[in-house]
């Protein structure tokens, strides 16, 4: 763990490198999801059109390229051609099972081989185990393994509402399967509000300490609702004072991606910067108590969405 006084000194040293605007990068996880109410390729094409329409200069796609079919390969090619950054998120690892350094290394190598043909891939790795409260010896082994092979670190900020959009999409898909109507305008409003509120709070905490806003990430699920609502989401973010920047800019920012601290993880940075609890989990894997809060919010805004 980095000593707080040392950390603050390093953070303040980097102040001159940070832009005055509140910079944000859009990140998509669970990329290459299969077809649902939208055909998978149609979803990707819509997402690319809407990201361009919203003025997003470069998004980051976290990819586990297991079992790529021709449509998946075409989608990755589309993302690369549009200038977005593809990030190796392992082949098909599970953080639920016991950590195995060799298995993780093999998974990263397999994913690297599959992503190598795409121009949007530059050997960046976002491997959740590096951001977990896992076996420290495995984490050290992973860092050494990646550094020796020239991999480059990528990571995402902790956001307590991360993954909630997967739940919204689940409710939406269930309604469609039952041939029930969905108030899309109300759902868009709920989607954008839920995904921006925690980001605002986290940024306020960082600003109070540093006097400016370090670059941050907003992680979305690559699903139908993201394709439909990303323009409205970005419009809301811009109205709140955020400036969408490139994934490369984020990964080169010393506070956002503190290479000079530990080489990979940023877990010890954000708790000190924001005062948030040191929760070394990529995001909660079940909605848990968050579901009740989200359900209450939806009941007030879109009551029909929760009906069976």
If you had to describe this structure to a student in words, what would you say it looks like?
- By secondary structure, the chain is α/β, with parallel strands linked by helices.
- Helices cover 49% and strands 10% of the residues.
- Strands 1, 2, 3, 4, 5, 6 and 7 form a 7-stranded parallel beta sheet that branches.
- Helix 2 runs parallel beside helix 3, helix 2 packs parallel to helix 8 and helix 7 packs across helix 8.
- It starts with a helix and ends in a 7-residue tail after the last helix.
- It comes from Cellvibrio fontiphilus.
- Keywords: Signal.
- This is Haem-binding uptake Tiki superfamily ChaN domain-containing protein.
What is the mean predicted local confidence, pLDDT?
84
- Annotated CATH homologous superfamily: Glycoside hydrolase/deacetylase
Using the 3D structure, state the CATH architecture: Alpha-Beta Barrel
Oligomer: single chain
Q: What is the CA-atom radius of gyration, in angstroms?
A: 19 Å
Helical coverage, percent range: 40-55%
Just give the CATH class.
Alpha Beta
Domain count, please report it: 1
Shape: globular
Please state the structural category. alpha/beta
Topology, please?
Layout: H1 4-13, E1 22-29, H2 40-54, E2 60-63, H3 70-81, E3 85-88, H4 101-115, E4 121-125, H5 136-148, E5 152-153, H6 164-177, H7 184-210, E6 216-221, H8 224-239, E7 242-244, H9 247-252, H10 259-262, H11 269-274, H12 289-301
Parallel strand pairs: 1-2, 1-6, 1-7, 2-3, 3-4, 4-5
Helix pairs in contact: 2-3, 2-8, 7-8, 7-12
Protein name: Haem-binding uptake Tiki superfamily ChaN domain-containing protein
Keywords: Signal
Organism: Cellvibrio fontiphilus
């Amino acid at each position: 763990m980095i000593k707080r006084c040392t950390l603050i000194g390093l953070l303040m040293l980097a102040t001159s490198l940070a832009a005055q605007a509140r910079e944000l990068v859009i990140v998509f996880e669970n990329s290459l999801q299969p077809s649902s109410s939208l055909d998978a390729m149609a979803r990707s094409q819509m997402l690319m059109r809407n990201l361009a329409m919203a003025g997003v200069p470069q998004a980051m796609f976290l990819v586990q390229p297991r079992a790529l079919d021709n449509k998946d390969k075409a989608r990755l090619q589309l993302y690369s051609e549009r200038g977005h950054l593809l990030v190796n998120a392992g082949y098909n690892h599970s953080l639920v099972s016991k950590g195995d350094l060799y298995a993780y290394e093999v998974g990263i190598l397999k994913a690297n081989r599959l992503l190598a043909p795409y121009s949007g891939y530059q050997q960046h790795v976002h491997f959740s185990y590096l951001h977990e409260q896992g076996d420290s010896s495995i984490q050290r082994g992973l860092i050494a393994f990646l550094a020796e092979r020239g991999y480059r670190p990528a990571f995402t900020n902790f956001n307590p509402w991360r993954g909630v959009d997967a739940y919204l999409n689940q409710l939406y898909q269930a309604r469609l399967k039952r041939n029930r109507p969905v108030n899309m305008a109300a759902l868009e409003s709920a989607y954008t509000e839920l995904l921006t509120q925690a980001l605002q709070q986290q940024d306020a905490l960082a600003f109070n300490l540093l006097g400016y806003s370090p670059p941050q990430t907003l992680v979305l699920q690559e699903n139908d609702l993201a394709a439909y609502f990303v323009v409205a989401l970005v419009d809301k973010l811009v109205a709140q004072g955020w400036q969408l920047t490139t994934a490369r800019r984020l990964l080169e920012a010393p506070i956002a991606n503190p290479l000079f601290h530990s080489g990979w993880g940023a877990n010890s940075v954000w708790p000190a910067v924001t005062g948030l609890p040191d929760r070394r989990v990529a995001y909660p894997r079940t909605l848990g108590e968050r579901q009740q809060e989200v359900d209450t919010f939806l009941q007030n805004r879109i009551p029909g969405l929760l009906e069976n």
